[in-house]
Amino acid sequence: MKKLIVFLVVVAAIVTAIAQVVLPTFVSHQMESLLGDKLHAESRYVDIQSSPAIKMASGQIDSFVGEFENAKLGKLNFAEVRVHVNHASVDPIQLIISQRVVLTGLGTGEIEGTITSQDLESFMESSVKGLDNARVTVHDDTIELTGNIDVGGFLRGKATIAGVLAIKENQLYFVPQRFAINGINVGGLNSALLKDVAIYDFSNFPIAAQAERVVLENGEIHVFVTPGAN
What we know:
InterPro entries: DUF2993. By secondary structure, the protein is an alpha+beta fold. It has four helices and twelve strands.
């Protein structure tokens, strides 16, 4: 009987030791592939940990960190998407039987998406009718968009559009506030020609997420999102 107990203890210790190495690596690689593919990211890295690691077999995750570069969300490129979540859960049956990682819950944390001026230039040029050669300047509190514009042939020239980024119903928008053409402010045309431009709906993010705030800093746009709140 003692030999059996010793044997079982040894087996349990071996299984735990193997799980300590194998489970975090397996789950991290699975999530890295899953999210990386959905984000169409050129570069991806995920590190998922639990202590002890055997907890993952029951679906419990302590920390989930991810970094994705040049991710495509809709028509917009994000230079970087960073994920940091404390506590998450996966389906243990899918994990053990099917060897698949299926997220079933997310705890507290934050997701940060970084958009460069070049990223926004490409998006705006494809989204604002009649605009080409777009250039974006990110100021501390506003976005300035310049480029050549031709609206139906009756309005053409070098356009300057100043506006802000806003979040409405979990969607990121560019909201125009001023429109000038060939250096002359044009009043009364914003509503007719420059409606709010929908940039990305975070309801379509690969994991449940609620957009919270936008920060303009050092010529970049940082969008902060709360995971699991969608």
